[in-house]
Write a structure and sequence with these properties.
Its EC number is 2.1.1.-. With 205 residues, this protein is of the alpha/beta class. It has helices at residues 2-9, 29-40, 56-64, 114-123, 140-150, 168-181, and strands at residues 16-17, 45-50, 71-76, 107-111, 130-135, 159-162, 188-194, 199-204. The chain starts with a helix and ends with a strand. The mean pLDDT is 97. The structure holds S-adenosylmethionine.
Length: 205
Amino acid sequence: MAFVAFMSENKSKGKINDYYNKRATYKNRYQLHDTLLLELKNKPVFYYEFGVAGGDMIKKWSSTNKVKESRFVGFDSFEGLPESWEGKKEGHFDQKGDFPDINDSRVRFVKGWFQDSVYKALLDCDFHEQCVYHLDADLFSSTLYVLFQIHAKLKVNDILIFDEFSSHDHEFEALEIFKKCINNKWQFEFIGAVNNYRQVAFILK
Ligand SMILES: C[S@@+](CC[C@H](N)C(=O)[O-])C[C@H]1O[C@@H](n2cnc3c(N)ncnc32)[C@H](O)[C@@H]1O
């Protein structure tokens, strides 16, 4: 299976890789973000998060990286998942349409289904600094859609973080299909993973 091959290929690689972790917990995902932020916290970054919910991760990035040129943009319906996923029902993560409350002028949110909002919103976004794309929509459909929307913006040294990569029919499969469709334009160099490849980061080369 492709996911097993991916795991074994990257077994002894990465700045962080906890495989095999007997105590995988959702909280451990912070370790991957901390590893990235250690290098990026004093640099201007454009952080794009697809799937924001209550905003834990966009808060973490914007409160750790205080560089004035940095920007943090979060995309979400704020109405929860559009489809059921791994035992979670449609509507799970519903925020009743409310944005997270973050008092930082560098942070903004785009509310709507990605399929209706991302294309237009990206026209008004900047990409000249190193971009960090955090793909945390869980679903195959949402992740694949976003990958194709950001495709033309990608550049060397941009970072892609997947939050549920080991849900291999979803985020992993979306990335596999995306890679097949872009003429091998990018090498996705493995930065690291936590929770037995649940959360995974790549840098583009
Ligand atoms: C796991 S939550 C995000 C968690 C968040 N990144 C954090 O760190 O706390 C997934 C989110 O993706 C959003 N989402 C999934 N597919 C979407 C779509 N097609 N359009 C808009 N939002 C979507 C859901 O509304 C949900 O809030």
